[in-house]
Write a structure and sequence with these properties.
The structure is a homodimer.
Chain A: H1 13-20, H2 24-31, H3 39-52, H4 58-65, E1 70-75, H5 81-96, E2 100-105, H6 111-123, E3 128-132, H7 136-144, E4 151-153, H8 161-176, E5 182-186, H9 192-207, E6 214-217, H10 222-227, H11 229-237, E7 243-246, H12 249-260, E8 271-273, E9 290-292, H13 295-306, E10 322-324
Parallel strand pairs in A: 1-2, 1-3, 3-4, 5-6, 5-7, 7-8
Antiparallel strand pairs in A: 9-10
Chain A binds a DNA duplex (30 and 30 nucleotides) through α2 and α4.
InterPro entries (chains A, B): HTH_LacI (IPR000843), LacI/GalR-like_sensor (IPR046335), Lambda_DNA-bd_dom_sf (IPR010982), Peripla_BP_I (IPR028082)
Keywords (chains A, B): DNA-binding, Transcription, Transcription regulation
Pfam families (chains A, B): LacI (PF00356), Peripla_BP_3 (PF13377)
DNA sequence: ATCCCAAGTGTTACCGGTAACATTCGGGGC
DNA sequence: GCCCCGAATGTTACCGGTAACACTTGGGAT
């Protein structure tokens, strides 16, 4: 009667157990690679699993074990290059540690969306939570609320770490080229990455007895860089500025595009240094000098942090930030 | 003894029910917004939930209902612009439909990783599966394997649809500018998007009685575009080529960067059109003429497709592809 | 007054794994 | 031969929601 192409609920441990002639517990042991299973029994179970196209049901497993081997990732603004790379790096770092990530996207400016995203990942029964590209406020708010899981933030090495170091490196590079009037095109003030990069830049200049002559602010987008071009051009023409540190490559791109119309030549009239080493940066015109940081290293550290430091032997040391010198930065021409 | 800051397992429906003086079923009804609950009862339950910081456990819910209101997303190559935007659009489309996405990243060239990713999202108890930026092979393989859930692919509108239409639009634009010797810089042949864009370009030219004079192939990256620059320059210098359609903006960027060294001027000697309308494209030098497609619309259609078309009244009609004309394309100069 | 019905609420079993504990069995030491 | 032990496997209850069904109640229709 009703057996017309039965929808056939997927097979569970019980079906597998029956087919293999063992108990469900034994099936469970095979699934989880427990010792003390006779090889022959293991084989029979594996065969039954294959025959029934068995797949574990994570929901059931999570219910029993209270662990999902998954870490939640909350990302704000998934269309920017930085966050995107961060998510990919976290996914890779998690994979290395035998974990998965559950990502929720939320507009950083919408508290309700953020709450929803957090509720969502928490409802998954995650073992830890990592924030990508977060606002300083957000991290604080989350750390304070007792969520019951460890919380970490990617690139949140305030005052030190790879981002800070990289920005200092970029500043030192410009100083080494003879520049003394150096400005900065920063990202949104409330982003942790911006804080690290800003502090790093200041620190790098400070070591040479300098400080920033100008500071502009963008929103990470190329457009926001272009929007500052007129002001930057004016400063250059006034002889007040010979080099600029952009907080990311895309703003540097926009800035250079905006400058092209105003007769300012990069790098002759203005040296430009970006940040991120976006894969496109080598093909900007001129090719952009920029800073590459070890995002994967940072991601590994975050994963280790939220999983209680059990890195399984994996090193969580980040490679040092590296300056990638291209055509957009040149020695000061008198 | 052992009550030193008890770890305190999170509260469940039972605790909430006890505190509110109702049954667990009533709590469940409140959680799921069922009708026929006295407002006062609802309030009591909500208050208890708040007091206990209650959070639903999706694992338990999924176990009972066999539905997670989550769709799985398998993404290959999460660092490219196209896939990234696709994932973000799917997340948004899912959100609109009251769903979430579970994303798994896998290297497209590693079958084991793909299998793992699929197993992972299936283990989550997803209601549907969407592939982003997939190879044609992969979609076929997945459709054929009976996974028990509907499968869709973003941008898989082979032979028609927005991608096809957009590419045709770009071709028509070049033809309209007087170009007759038009080449193409394509993406990897086995990508569905490449197929759509390639077919669209051919179709657009065909309508004018033309066909491609050259076809180069890249891997979507700017570098791969730059790597073809020498050959493209030779074709231009030989008078065999006056315009080129790039399969994405980043390859167009690389191509233009590579051409800069060989004395070919864009758009005077060669008109270049990209695809995607990457937010950076307006700031390339020269600003890139490109095609914008409604990725969100496509994402909505995928979500509707895998959830049985129940769009909840949301239209799944995509906005038509749009040509964005900038400085990289100019009329043919005799 | 009686019946009926819908609104509002409670009871019970179950989803599919797994932890904890129980059990069987074969062999080595005495 | 007896005891003990570890290897291999089975039994049972439970994780936290929810579907299915049962049950009260109060008021309107008759």
């Amino acid at each position: 009667m009703s057996d017309v192409t039965r929808p056939a609920r997927p097979a569970g441990v019980r079906e597998v157990a029956r087919l293999a002639g063992v108990s469900t517990q034994t099936v469970s042991r095979v699934i989880n690679n427990y010792p003390n299973i006779r090889p022959e029994t293991r084989m029979r179970v594996l065969e039954a699993m294959r025959a029934l196209d068995y797949r574990v049901n994570n929901a059931a497993r999570a219910l029993g074990t209270a662990s999902t081997r998954t870490i939640g990732v909350i990302a704000t603004d998934a269309t920017l290059y930085g966050p995107t790379v961060g998510i990919a790096a976290l996914a890779e770092a998690a994979r290395e540690a035998g974990l998965w990530i559950a990502t929720a996207y939320a507009d950083a400016s919408d508290p309700a969306a953020i709450d929803g995203a957090i509720a969502h990942v928490l409802a998954q029964g995650i073992d830890g939570l990592v924030l990508v590209a977060p606002h300083a406020r957000m991290v604080a708010a989350l750390r304070e609320r007792e969520l019951g899981v460890p919380v970490a933030a990617l690139h949140a090495d305030e005052g030190a770490g790879a981002q800070h170091e990289g920005a200092a490196l970029a500043a030192a590079h410009l100083v080494g080229l003879g520049h003394r009037r150096i400005g900065r095109l920063g990202g949104p003030v409330d982003w942790l990455e911006e804080a690290s990069r800003a502090q790093g830049a200041e620190a790098g200049l400070h070591r040479a007895g300098l400080s920033l002559t100008h500071e502009w602010r963008g929103d990470w987008s190329a457009r926001s860089g272009a929007d500052r071009a007129a002001e930057v051009a004016a400063a250059v023409q006034a002889g007040e500025l010979t080099a600029i540190l952009a907080a990311n490559d895309q703003m540097a791109l926009g800035l250079m595009a905006g400058l092209a119309g105003s007769g300012i030549r990069v790098p002759n009239d203005l040296a430009v240094v970006g940040f991120d080493d976006n894969p496109d940066a080598a093909f900007y015109a001129p090719a952009l000098t920029t800073v590459r940081v070890d995002v994967l290293g940072d991601a590994r550290r975050c994963v280790a942090e939220v999983t209680g430091g059990s890195t399984g032997g994996l090193s969580t040391a980040s490679a040092p930030a590296r300056l990638v010198i291209r055509a957009s930065s040149a020695p000061l021409t008198i």
